[in-house]
Write a structure and sequence with these properties.
The chain is α+β, with helices and mostly antiparallel strands. It folds into 5 domains: 43 residues, no CATH class; 96 residues, conserved putative lor/sdh protein from methanococcus maripaludis s2 fold; 166 residues, Efflux pump adaptor protein, beta barrel domain (Elongation Factor Tu (Ef-tu), domain 3); 73 residues, Copper binding periplasmic protein CusF (OB fold (Dihydrolipoamide Acetyltransferase, E2P)), CATH 2.40.50; 100 residues, Copper binding periplasmic protein CusF (OB fold (Dihydrolipoamide Acetyltransferase, E2P), Beta Barrel), CATH 2.40.50. Helices cover 15% and strands 38% of the residues. The protein has 8 helices and 37 strands. Strands 4, 5, 6, 21, 22, 23, 24, 25 and 26 form a 9-stranded antiparallel beta sheet that branches. The chain has a 6-stranded antiparallel beta barrel with strand order 7-16-19-18-17-20. The chain has a 6-stranded mixed beta sheet with strand order 32-35-34-33-36-37, with no helix packed on it. It is elongated.
């Protein structure tokens, strides 16, 4: 008996201790208020001022007192006034900044050497090309210059030809010239003209007259000093009149074909002076001018070709050499401008950012407008003050460490001051700036499970894929839009809210229609797109009539922004309806329509008739 009494006393003592521990724990960890705070907790003299408490995993909601997070199984974390971040400033300890290899440079005024430095290639000057061709039908007896790229000099023999047509013409001319018959002199003059028309030169005709012998063989010589760029003759060939035997190019001047990036095309103009250097002659500068800027942009490299003409004494520049071309700034601007190292700029695709070091481990994100760039320096037109310390190394690691991109997204949208809410769901549709999501209940926004159209976040890289399960943070803006600010993909097992199932699978039993009482607890503000079991409980099979504007339309569904529908107990909202079998021709976004719809017991809303009223004013 005494043993039983002792055991009962011990059990009661243990229960009393557990109850006391539970009461003490919850007395010091009250449930936080979800109401956003502006002032935070008061700070005693010498203590750090707390602005608010938040969940680091869900940074949107703020709480006015400590406690357990309603989102994660963790305590709320205080945000102190001296930590920065309210104006885009983040704090990183000096030790972490040193480990990240953060280096800074001063933004200071200076003169920008805005020369365009591009690469090019030496080419033949096509304007100095000469073609050697026979002026009569001939046979090739001997080729004297036999290979491409062989150098030639003016007057050098190239090829020997046999011209049968010349033999008879020359014999006729010599016979008439020696004849004493009256009128033979006039005929001889005509025969001489025929020799010239047959392709003989004046010198060859005079040589024929002095020698008195037929000269049926012809030697073609080079008219210039240069090289053989193209060879079209071989011994034994029959060559018709005008056939190209040689293409000769002089090296007295050459072209440099420079590849100018499309973004710098405006800085290169015809007639500009340029400086050209080649690796073959280090330290020597060849000066020329831009002969032409060709009109076509290379589709693969996005560059324009600038044709630069250079004098080439001694033929030191050879076709095929690579060259570096420096083009002076045509604007001639010499006034000082604000310069920062080009490596300090973070380009997101839509804007340019720099990280400004403000001392004591604090960094601020600043959006800047950029101008010209040259030799590792870039001009800042606005957004930065002279003397600012900008981060030039480790800024991407700072961005990762401090989550500056999330800070920037919050700054972009901080103007509305609307409270943030967090939900989970499945992406149903992505159309332009709208994302339709089937989500579970969102208690902080007093919303039940439904399918809604949200405004996509401004960061285009955050756009999810259809069918993807996500956790998202949004706010109900004063305009009535449901704006998403952050999207986080959820993997298997990460979700804390069951996925809403609004449409039964094929062959499965349809879910029961929602009870009227449950429907009454759901608030659907104007601007929300709703297709849900928690939507207003319209009478099944009844036909309701409404007017609105088309947000999007296809053969399967219509997204319509409509006014109140008293017969269905619905307020003004944006809803998705199943499309009828026939739609008005040319129906598109912005059209005003009058439509009739029904609500099924499963919660589906089907449009049965649609009439166009005109475009939205």
């Amino acid at each position: 008996m005494k043993a039983r009494t002792l055991i009962a006393a011990l059990v009661l003592l243990a229960l009393g201790g557990a109850a006391g521990y539970y009461a003490a724990r919850h007395a010091h960890a009250p449930t936080p208020s979800a109401t956003p705070t502006a002032g935070g907790a008061p700070a005693a003299s010498g203590e750090r001022k707390i602005l608010y408490w938040h969940d680091p995993m869900v940074p949107g909601p703020r709480f006015d007192k400590p406690g357990r997070s309603p989102f994660m199984d963790m305590d709320l974390v205080p945000k102190y006034a001296d930590e920065g971040g309210e104006d885009g400033t983040v704090s990183i300890s000096p030790r972490v900044a040193q480990n990240l290899g953060v280096r800074t440079a001063v933004a200071q005024p200076g003169r920008l050497d805005a020369r365009v430095a591009v690469v090019g290639r030496v080419e033949y000057n096509d304007r100095s090309t000469v073609v050697v061709a026979p002026r009569a039908n001939a046979f090739v007896e001997k080729v004297l210059v036999r290979a491409v790229q062989d150098p030639v000099r003016r007057g050098q023999p190239l090829v020997e030809l046999l011209v049968p047509d010349w033999a008879s013409a020359q014999e006729e001319y010599l016979a008439l010239r020696a004849s004493k018959v009256p009128g033979a002199e006039a005929l001889a003059s005509a025969a001489r003209e025929r020799l010239l028309l047959a392709g003989m030169s004046e010198a060859q005709v005079r040589a024929l007259e002095s020698s008195g012998r037929v000269q049926a063989r012809l030697t073609l010589v080079s008219p210039i000093d240069g090289v053989v760029a193209e060879l079209g003759v071989r011994e034994g060939m029959t060559v018709p009149l005008g056939t190209m035997l040689y293409r000769l190019v002089t090296l007295d001047s050459v072209w440099v074909e420079a590849e100018v990036p499309e973004a710098q095309a405006a800085l290169v103009r015809t007639g500009q002076s340029v400086d050209v250097t080649v690796p073959a002659w280090p330290g020597e500068v060849f000066r020329g001018r831009v002969a032409a800027v060709l009109p076509e942009v290379n589709a693969e490299t996005r560059t324009l070709r600038a044709r630069i003409e250079l004098a080439n004494p001694g033929a030191r520049l050879r076709p095929g050499m690579y060259a570096t071309v420096a083009v002076a700034d045509p604007t001639g601007r010499k006034e000082p401008v604000l310069l920062v190292p080009a490596e300090a700029v973070i380009r997101t695709g839509t804007r340019a950012l720099v990280l400004v070091a403000e001392g004591e481990g604090k960094f601020r994100q600043a959006e800047v407008s950029l101008g010209r760039e040259s030799r590792g320096q870039i001009e800042v037109l606005k957004g930065l003050a002279p003397g600012a310390q900008v981060v030039v190394s480790g800024q991407f690691l700072v961005d990762s460490e401090a989550n500056l991109r999330a800070t920037g997204a919050r700054l972009d949208n901080a103007g509305s001051g609307a409270p943030r809410h967090t939900g989970e769901g499945v992406v149903e549709r992505v159309a332009g700036s709208d994302i339709t999501i089937s989500h579970g209940p969102v208690a902080s926004a007093r919303m039940g499970a439904m399918t809604m159209a949200f405004k996509a976040p401004k960061d285009a890289n955050a756009a999810p894929k259809v069918g993807e399960r996500i956790r998202f943070e949004f706010a109900i803006e004063p305009s009535g839009d449901f704006q998403i600010y952050r999207i986080e993909p959820l993997g298997a097992g990460q979700s804390t809210v069951p996925a809403p199932r609004l449409n039964p699978a094929p062959g499965a039993a349809a879910p029961a229609a929602p009870a009227p009482a449950a429907a009454a607890t759901v608030t659907a503000p104007a601007g929300a797109s709703v297709r849900s079991a928690a939507a207003p409980a319209a009478t099944p099979s009844a036909v309701h009539r409404a007017e609105g504007s088309i947000v999007s339309a296809d053969a399967h569904s219509l997204l319509i922004k409509h006014g109140p529908v008293p017969s269905a107990g619905m307020g003004a909202m944006t809803m998705e309806f199943l499309a009828p079998k026939t739609l008005p021709p040319g129906l598109k976004a912005g059209d005003r329509v009058r439509f009739e719809f029904t609500a099924s017991p499963e919660g589906e809303y089907r449009a049965v008739k649609v009439e166009k009223l005109g475009a939205t004013p």
